[in-house]
């Protein structure tokens, strides 16, 4: 039978928030966030995960329909959705002190996971976009295609920015981190915008009617809002720490 811990031993167990502030927070030495901010950001974080889950399922459904028409070229959709919406979005969320799954990791561990997710996500997103660019005879004729190209270029730039962050962050850690976080966020916003235009432009083929398209676009917009909110709070906490 399991023994019940005594009240005195429980008093010494650090809470998740305390662990986070000691090891994994944006600024381990900074003042603790207010209870209101803490609660709000935890709710925003949970909603963001729920909404992004729904967006991923809708993206995969589009890929499934597309595979019936175009066969292996549906890889474009799977790779871009997994790269941008699953991996790169989680790479951004993993650094937030309010993110559920990464909360008990130390700052060093979070940084490592951020790198792995970011590299894997960028590799999939870049491959997914290039597959489609090579396959399309008349390139960049649609809004989705043009914005997708900008997302691809920003993804490459973000990777270069990430390497600069790694090499030079000792020179001016704060400004380099803020610039890196801002460029990463801009990249994701542009990629999500391209996804929104994909949902809207190909609605008749993939999402079977206007109401589903509106649902898909709304879920994407609100999910992206949650991602942006987490990232901006992180950036501001860095600026004022
Ligand atoms: C974040 C996700 C996505 C990104 C960044 C992205 C990016 C791109 C890029 C760069 C191209 C090549 C444009 C060209 O050469 O003209 C493209 C084409 C295409 N994509 Fe996506 N894509 C995404 C998701 C999707 C989804 C979910 C669908 C299906 C609903 C889709 C359907 C297509 C189609 C049909 C084309 C060829 C026609 C066109 O250029 O619009 N894509 N995409």
UniProtKB/TrEMBL annotation:
<feature type="transmembrane region" description="Helical">
    <location>
        <begin position="115"/>
        <end position="134"/>
    </location>
</feature>
<dbReference type="Pfam" id="PF03188">
    <property type="entry name" value="Cytochrom_B561"/>
</dbReference>
<keyword id="KW-1133">Transmembrane helix</keyword>
<feature type="transmembrane region" description="Helical">
    <location>
        <begin position="47"/>
        <end position="69"/>
    </location>
</feature>
<feature type="transmembrane region" description="Helical">
    <location>
        <begin position="215"/>
        <end position="236"/>
    </location>
</feature>
<feature type="domain" description="Cytochrome b561">
    <location>
        <begin position="40"/>
        <end position="238"/>
    </location>
</feature>
<dbReference type="InterPro" id="IPR045150">
    <property type="entry name" value="CYB561D1/2"/>
</dbReference>
<keyword id="KW-0479">Metal-binding</keyword>
<keyword id="KW-0249">Electron transport</keyword>
<feature type="transmembrane region" description="Helical">
    <location>
        <begin position="146"/>
        <end position="169"/>
    </location>
</feature>
<keyword id="KW-0472">Membrane</keyword>
<keyword id="KW-0349">Heme</keyword>
<feature type="transmembrane region" description="Helical">
    <location>
        <begin position="181"/>
        <end position="200"/>
    </location>
</feature>
<dbReference type="InterPro" id="IPR006593">
    <property type="entry name" value="Cyt_b561/ferric_Rdtase_TM"/>
</dbReference>
<keyword id="KW-0813">Transport</keyword>
<keyword id="KW-0812">Transmembrane</keyword>
<keyword id="KW-0408">Iron</keyword>
<protein>
    <recommendedName>
        <fullName>ascorbate ferrireductase (transmembrane)</fullName>
        <ecNumber>7.2.1.3</ecNumber>
    </recommendedName>
</protein>
<feature type="transmembrane region" description="Helical">
    <location>
        <begin position="75"/>
        <end position="95"/>
    </location>
</feature>
